[in-house]
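Retro notes (design track)

What went well: tokenization of the new backbones is finally stable.
What didn't: we kept losing track of which sequence belonged to which structure.
Fix going forward: every design gets posted as structure first, then sequence, in one message. First example under the new rule, 415 residues:
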């Protein structure tokens, strides 16, 4: 099928590179990884942009939130598109959107320009999110757990690598533009295999008479047997991404003050550390009914320790808390994400997983906007302290609820 036939939602003669399953796995994972790297290159650049453009803490969170809100809106409006136009076409559109976002953000000289560039990046990531997750699931039909692991590994790994890569590339001439030039070359390179590969047919081609109707926004719906798993995954995702949203927006300035450093590579590594730990946890095999409550408990305690590290100006405690928070989140979210993915029928996989990510990504926008507002009202140290206390307490409450459910399950099994 050619790309244009897919976009028109019409079958065509199969042609192109008949790639192996391994090659398709690599391409699907590489696209979402690269797009998330690009979406997070700006993290260590925010202090520079604040100084050069005269931005406040609220302005920084607004720029960050514009990415998340555009991502969420696109997931709601177009999260199901890859079911109809095919996974390859959706990923190709996402890469083109990422290239446009890079150009606009790199050339922005106002807050509005930054927000526009971030919004385009959010649209690109949204188009790729459901498509890549569904593609990985279809490529590994007999190993659904590993499909979920690859999905979260590529996602968390991309978000974690973005700040570190952005910090390193900012050492090149043109600190706020060079990272996007290099990244655009990588995205352009991904267009080549996406154009050449022989795409698999979409799983739900629309009626010939009304093809565009299939792309119309849909009301989110989850089958009855998947609802409990859906809401648990969404709740864990919202909470953990609130922590990640802080790490990727206001945390660079916070970390710089704690460590008394202006090294952008170091700040970028620290900002991405929780996500890197989350990505690493996908390689670990940990099972059992208590994985979710244990992971949430570790996340809750670690978030509180992040605030403690700031108060004590302890680099060691800061690093330990970042790593532990990422590990706890990674294990808990992988388990609940795999549970809901396994209970959703294949024809609605992209739509339902996109809906999970809608709620999850809202966690990295709404609380972070509140944190930015509070920083302007009471100062960043006090606002961060309140934020970590609320997030830590919420994680511990959720850990208690999932522990009670796990204990009830074991009791029912014994009976």
């Amino acid at each position: 099928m050619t790309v244009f036939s897919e976009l028109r939602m019409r079958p065509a003669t199969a042609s192109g590179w008949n790639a192996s399953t391994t090659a398709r796995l690599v391409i699907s994972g590489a696209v979402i990884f690269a797009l998330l790297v690009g979406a997070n290159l700006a993290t260590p650049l925010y202090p520079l942009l604040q100084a050069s453009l005269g931005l406040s803490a609220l302005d920084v969170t607004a720029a960050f939130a514009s990415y998340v809100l555009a991502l969420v809106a696109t997931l709601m409006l177009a999260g199901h598109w890859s079911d109809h136009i095919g996974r390859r076409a959706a990923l190709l559109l996402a890469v083109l959107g990422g290239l446009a976002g890079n150009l606009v953000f790199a050339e922005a000289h106002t807050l509005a320009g930054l927000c526009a560039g971030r919004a385009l990046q959010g649209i690109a990531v949204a188009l790729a999110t459901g498509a890549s997750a569904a593609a990985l699931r279809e490529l590994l039909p007999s190993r659904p757990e590993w499909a979920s692991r690859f999905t979260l590994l590529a996602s968390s790994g991309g978000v974690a690598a973005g700040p570190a890569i952005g910090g390193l590339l900012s050492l090149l001439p043109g600190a706020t533009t060079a990272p996007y030039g290099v990244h655009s070359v990588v995205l352009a390179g991904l267009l080549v295999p996406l154009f050449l590969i022989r795409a698999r047919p979409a799983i739900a081609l629309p009626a010939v008479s009304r093809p565009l109707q299939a792309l119309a926004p849909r009301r989110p719906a989850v089958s009855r047997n998947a609802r409990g798993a859906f809401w648990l995954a969404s709740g864990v995702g919202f909470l953990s991404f609130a922590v990640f949203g802080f790490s990727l927006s206001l945390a660079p300035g916070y970390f710089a003050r704690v460590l008394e450093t202006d090294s952008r590579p170091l700040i970028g590594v620290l900002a991405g550390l929780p996500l890197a730990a989350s990505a690493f946890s996908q390689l670990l095999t940990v099972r059992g009914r208590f994985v979710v409550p244990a992971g949430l408990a570790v996340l809750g305690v670690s978030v509180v320790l992040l605030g403690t590290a700031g108060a004590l100006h302890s680099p060691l405690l800061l690093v330990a808390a970042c790593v532990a928070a990422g590990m706890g989140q990674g294990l808990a979210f992988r388990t609940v994400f795999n549970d809901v993915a396994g209970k959703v029928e294949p024809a609605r996989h992209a739509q339902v997983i996109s809906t999970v990510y809608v709620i999850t990504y809202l966690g990295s926008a709404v609380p972070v906007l509140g944190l930015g507002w509070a920083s302007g009202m009471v100062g960043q140290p006090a606002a961060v302290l309140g934020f970590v206390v609320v997030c830590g307490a919420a994680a511990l409450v959720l850990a208690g609820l999932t522990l009670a459910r796990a204990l009830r399950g074991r009791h029912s099994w014994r009976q």
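Added context from the reviewer: Residues 53 and 110 are 7 Å apart (CA to CA).
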